[in-house]
């Protein structure tokens, strides 16, 4: 039997993760039976669990991959940019449904709990680093501490995710995100020292 290359193994693993993710989103963790996972991935039980020890390990890997993607986006685009991406692009649009399952599973799966906490910390660190850079460059308000700013952004993310999960998407969401972004932006006074009545 010819040896399978590392790139082929990585590709097969990624295919399984993508299909399994959709299965978990559609049916929930308990409803994503092995037979449904086989159908979703187009692979046998043996092929799936060759890459992942069991269903629990597969679910943890799905959750971890999503969080890596979100951390990457938050680092490059900021939290508001991440939220805009989730609204506009399909690959993370159903993330909230998966998060509901994660929140439920962490109560009984210690390994998932530890991995989820580590991933959440990485996301927060990425957001903190970007906000610090923005503050130091004069683009972010300095009269609000970073922890409060991060709390506002996290609440905004969860609120948008809740709307997406319940199909209550409004065409006013972009304007609402503009408002949040504007509220955090540092504004320089006019050069003549007068107060701009439009900025309050």
What's the quick description here?
The chain has eight helices and no strands.
Question: How would you characterize this protein structure?
Answer:
It is a single chain. The chain is an all-alpha fold. It folds into 2 domains: 43 residues, Orthogonal Bundle (Arc Repressor Mutant, subunit A), CATH 1.10.10; 125 residues, Orthogonal Bundle (Tetracycline Repressor, domain 2), CATH 1.10.357. It has 8 helices and no strands. Helix 1 crosses helix 4, helix 1 packs across helix 5 and helix 7 runs antiparallel to helix 8. The longest helix has 34 residues. It is elongated.
Output the number of helix runs: 8
Give helix and strand order, one letter per element, not per position. HHHHHHHH
**Residue fraction in strands:** under 5%
| Overall number of strands | 0
Structural class: mainly alpha
CATH fold assignment of the largest domain: Tetracycline Repressor, domain 2
**CATH homologous superfamily label of the largest domain:** Tetracycline Repressor, domain 2
What is the overall pLDDT average? 87
CATH architecture heading of the largest domain: Orthogonal Bundle
The largest sheet is: none
For this structure, what is the CATH class of the largest domain?
Mainly Alpha
Helicity range: over 70%
Number of domain units:
2
């Amino acid at each position: 039997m010819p040896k399978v290359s590392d790139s082929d193994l990585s590709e097969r693993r990624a295919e399984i993760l993508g299909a399994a993710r959709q299965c978990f989103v559609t049916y929930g963790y308990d409803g994503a039976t092995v037979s449904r996972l086989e159908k979703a991935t187009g692979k046998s039980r043996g092929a799936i669990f060759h890459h992942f020890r069991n269903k629990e390990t597969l679910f943890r890997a799905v959750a971890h991959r999503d969080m890596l993607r979100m951390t990457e986006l938050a680092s490059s685009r900021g939290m508001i940019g991440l939220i805009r991406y989730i609204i506009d692009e399909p690959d993370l649009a159903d993330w909230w449904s998966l998060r509901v399952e994660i929140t439920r599973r962490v109560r009984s799966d210690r390994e998932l709990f530890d991995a989820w906490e580590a991933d959440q910390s990485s996301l927060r660190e990425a957001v903190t680093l970007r906000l610090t850079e923005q503050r130091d460059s004069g683009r972010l308000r300095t009269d609000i501490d970073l922890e409060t700013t991060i709390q506002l952004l996290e609440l905004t993310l969860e609120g948008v995710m809740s709307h997406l999960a319940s199909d209550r998407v409004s065409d006013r969401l972009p304007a609402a995100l503009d408002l949040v972004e504007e509220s955090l932006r540092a504004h320089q006074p006019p050069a003549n020292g007068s107060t701009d009545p439009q900025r309050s």
